[in-house]
Amino acid sequence: MPARLLALLSFLFLAFAQTAVAQVSPPTIAARAWILLDETTGQVLASHEPDLKIEPASLTKIMTAYLAFDALREKRLTLDQRPAVSQAAYKAIGSRMFVEPAKPATVEELLNGVIVQSGNDASIVLAEALAGTEASFAEQMNRAAQRMGLRNTSFRNATGLPDPQHYTTARDLAALAQRLIEDFPDQYAMYSKREYTYNNIRQPNRNRLLAIDPSVDGMKTGHTDAAGYCLIASAKRDLPGIGGTRRLISVVLGAASESARAIESQKLLNYGYQNFDVVRVQAKDKPAGTYDVWKGSKSTVDGGFERDVLVSVPRGQADQVKAEIERVQPLIAPIAQGQQIGTLRVRIGDQLVAERPLLALSAVQPAGWFGRAWDSLRLMLAR
User: Fold this and answer.
1) Beta strand pairing status for 228-238 and 245-255?
2) Looking at residue 254, what is its pLDDT?
3) What pLDDT score does 141 carry?
4) Residue 103: closest CA among 201, 216, 35
5) Strands, DSSP E only, in 124-171?
6) Taking a C-beta distance cutoff of 8 angstroms, is the pair 97, 119 a contact?
7) According to the model, what pLDDT value does residue 353 have?
8) Can you tell me the distance from the alpha carbon of 264 to that of 33, in angstroms, rounded to the nearest whole number?
9) Residues of the chain with confidence (pLDDT) below 70
C-alpha cells in the first residue's frame, strides 16, 4: 500500500445506505429548553434550544454535590465530619434542611440535605467547608465547569439563588449530570431516595418521577420565579439484544408547574426508549483490524477500543449504520499500548453520530538498527 500521512481504511459492520436517516419526531415539550441524552452512547437524541443560557435554580446543586464527592474521594472531607454552620448558612432563604449552628450536621447528612431536600443551607455549609466562603467555592465550580467543557455555564453561588451572572444551558446540564453519574456511581445512588428526615423534619424528594417510573433513579429538581420549574431526570432500562442496561438523561427547563416538569420529562424519556435502538458497532474485546508497523520489532499491531462502541439509531434504521477508520500512516514504532493509532467514525446514512479513538492493543518496540534502516529506505522508495 503506498505510504500516506493519513490513509483511509473503510470497513463495514452493517449495510451501507445513502438515504437520510428517518426518525419519529420528538413529542411537543412545554418548556423553554430541553434535551435528551443517551448516556450509554453519548448521543443527543433530541433537543430544543439546548444552548440557550438559562437560570438553573437548584439544578446548580449537582455541581455542588460533584465537588463534595470529589473532596470525599481525595480525603479532603469525611462523611462523619461536622462542618461549622455559619450565620449565612443558618439564615439561607429558600428551601432548607434546617441545620443549626449549635448542632452541626455531618457531611453525609448535608449531602442528603442537598440532594434530597435541596437545602440551600446545606449547600452553603459544604461550600464554606471546602473553600472558606461561598464566593470562593463558586470559583471552584467554574474551574470544574471549564475542565468538563461546559462552555456556556457561569456559577455565582452553591445554591442556584438568582444572580444575573449565574446561568447554564440544557446541554451543559446534561453533560454535568452525565459526569456525576459516571464519576461517582456509588454516590449517585443518593439521588434515588424518595425522602429524607433531618432534625425530626421529613421532606420528600421533589422529583415526582421517582414515584411514577420505576426505571427513574434520579436526578434533581429546581425552581425559581425566573427559571420556572426545572428537572433533570435519569432512567435506566434493560438493553435488549446486547445485554446490560441503557441510561437516558432528560433536562427540562422552564416548565409551567411542578407536575408539568414531571410530565414533560416522562414524555422525553419514553420517546427515547420507544423510538431508538442501540447497535454495537465494535466489541471492546475484539480487534477492529491489524495494521502495518514500520521500524518495529513486530510488523503489525492490532487496533481496538477501550470499551464497546455503541450507537443510538432510530428504530428500524440499524441497516443504515456504517463505520470507517482513518488511521495514522505510516505507523512508526515505538508504539505504546493504548496509543491512538487512528479514529473510528460512525455514520447513520450521511450523518456523523460518533467518533472514537482507535487504540493499539499491544506495545511495539523499535526494531534493531538494520530493521530501522531497511524500513527507512522502504519508506523513501514508497514516496
Assistant:
1) antiparallel
2) 97
3) 98
4) 201
5) none
6) yes
7) 87
8) 11
9) 1-23, 375, 383
pTM above 0.90, yes or no: no
Instruction: Give strand pairing partners of 43.
Output: 38
User: What distance in Å separates the CA atoms of residue 215 and residue 218, rounded to the nearest whole number?
Assistant: 9
pLDDT of residue 383: 67
**CA-based angle 50:56:60, to the nearest 5?**
120
Assess contact for 269 and 216: CB atoms under 8 A: yes
All three cell numbers of 204? 420528600
Question: In which region does residue 201 sit, left (phi positive, over 0), alpha (psi from -120 to 50) or beta (all else)?
Answer: beta
Q: Which residues contact 344 (CB under 8 A, 6 or more apart)?
A: 281, 282, 288, 305, 309, 323, 324, 325, 354, 355, 356, 357, 358
In the three-class reduction of DSSP (H, G, I as helix; E, B as strand; rest coil), residue 374 is classed as helix
* Residue 358, number of CB atoms within 10 A of its CB: 24
Question: 123: which 3 cell numbers?
Answer: 449547600
Whole-angstrom CA distances from 240 to 181, 237, 244, 286, 374 are 22, 9, 8, 21, 52
Q: How many residues does the chain have?
A: 383
Measured distance CA(283)–CA(288) in Å, rounded = 8
Query: Are the beta carbons of 291 and 6 closer than 8 angstroms?
Result: no
Report the catalytic residues: 58, 61, 118
Q: Would you state the cell numbers that stand for residue 149, as one nine-digit string?
A: 467543557
Distance CA 20, CA 18 (A): 7
- Position 22 scores a pLDDT of 46
Cα three-residue angle 377-382-383, rounded to 5 degrees:
105
**Could you tell me if 293 and 335 are in contact, meaning their C-beta atoms sit under 8 angstroms apart?**
yes
Residue from 160, 81, 80 nearest 120 by CA: 160
Residue 135 to residue 118: CA distance in whole angstroms: 19
> In 3D, which of 276, 381, 274, 293 has the Cα closest to residue 342?
293
- Pairing relationship of beta strands 351-360 and 289-292 according to DSSP bridges: unpaired
Peptide bond into 330 cis (omega under 30): yes
- Angle (CA) 259-262-265 rounded to 5° is 145
**Which residues, in sequence order, are bridge partners of residue 201?**
198
Task: Please state, in angstroms and rounded to a whole number, the distance separating the CA atoms of residues 127 and 64.
Answer: 7
Q: Which three cell numbers stand for residue 52?
A: 440557550
> Identity (one letter) of the amino acid at 323?
A
Task: Return the C-alpha cell found at 245.
Answer: 442496561
What pLDDT is recorded for position 375?
66
